[in-house]
Design brief:
By secondary structure, the chain is mostly helical. It is built from eleven helices and four strands, in the order H-H-H-E-H-H-H-H-E-E-H-H-H-H-E. The N terminus is likely disordered.
Amino acid sequence: MARRHWLDPLARRLLMASGQLPAENNKPAAVNASSPLETDRSQIERELLALKLSHEPTRPLGNAEEVHHAAALGWRLDVNRASANDWNRLPGIEAEQVDLLLRLQAGGVQLSGAEDLQRLLDLPASQLQDWLPVLLFRWYGEPASPPPAASRLDLNRAGSTQLERLGLSAERLQRLLRERARRPFRDLADLQQRLHLPPDLVENWIGKVTFSASQAGPELPPARRSA
């Protein structure tokens, strides 16, 4: 009578699937996605990910499979409130995409669904599908903690030196100053329309600029009192 292998059945099946043990004669070597072996393997990988996340809660997810496991473990990414650390956990996301998402969030822009996110980031359908299990789209009445106005550049009051930090050419800077002298800008849309600026340039200013109600006028000397 053949001796029983010392490995428990689950470990033996995993080693057989990886080719480290020969397949048993009375069992097919190939397995499909619904087989007990595949289910056991998925459970083990999920438990391993849970163990890793317990030691490193912000650990990036390496691939679509880990995203599915993270979703099963209860992790969700709240699209309209996510931090840079949250976004950077998604496989394949780029730094420029994270920066754009955070600036839009700071400017009060909210995404209503997966299609909005796909159009905004120009995502391939396959990449969006990889992320979907953990994406959560909630709508909020107020933007999440926008930067204080004092830390943003007031385009209706800033001087030429400050405006140069926006990356405008000398011609566009002079045009901005002339248009501002005629009438203060209401918002980014008004500024883009009046100056005919490229959308990507204006998009880069979201969350970084603000618009006061009126342009600062010259300081006048105090009025003389009549005798």
